[in-house]
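Late entry, written up from scratch paper. The run itself happened at the end of the previous shift, but nothing got recorded in the book at the time, so transcribing now.
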Amino acid sequence: MKGKVTGIILFVSLLLFGGCGPREENILNVGMELAYPPFEMTDTEGNPTGISVDMAHELGKFLGRPVKIWNISFDGLIPSLKTGKIDIVISSMTITEERSQSVTFSKPYSKAYLALLVSQDSPVEKVEDLNRKGRIIAVKKGTTGHLYAREHFPLARINVFDKESACVLEVVQKKADCFIYDQMTILTNWQKNRDTTRAILKPFQKDFEYWGMAMRKDDVELHRKVNEFLGSFKESGGFERLADKYLKEEKKTFEELGIPFFFSP
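Output as recorded:
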């Protein structure tokens, strides 16, 4: 009897665990910080949603792999990738030389400039006004806004926060002259806080910021397939569909202001 019971337990174990193994290994683990609407966010029930989430699932279909979204703080995304917790980062991440030293990026799929959300009472009128003693700049940790401020405004005080909302609040409450972030976020937060803030959307960088998907350097095959996917997705009008779904009004505003849109050629 003991032998039969052991055999049954072993059989059930193989069904429960052995059968799940290959499917678990085939999952595409995608890292993103779900705190950047409409690109990475959660719905009313706490489920991942947004442009990057849709893209991740489209990539999964292209690869024939189920997708699992991991919500990770932005500055923890690359460490999580390098340790193998996730397979790829799809989180509105700008391609930079510094990041490219430790990860491999896909071809760019989007482009953007930095912009300024300025306190209504601040004397700042243009980006050149920031590199002065007494200026206070709010930045989100690990972002290109953080890196840009650190490099270009040595005379200003740079206050670093973990969350975008905290940076916005600093400006709204007049504790900071400005918040440096991408144009889309600055536009959205200015629209929410018109009485207390101003938006300077005019580009002040020499070049576009390009966003890409980040992978481990040794994951050559995934890198090749991701680039294939991006080409196919663009050709099929995938980016236009995402813009119409999530960014219709913003796209119109950008066109009216004469500012290149995220997914424009």
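The mean pLDDT is 89.
(Scratch paper discarded after transcription.)
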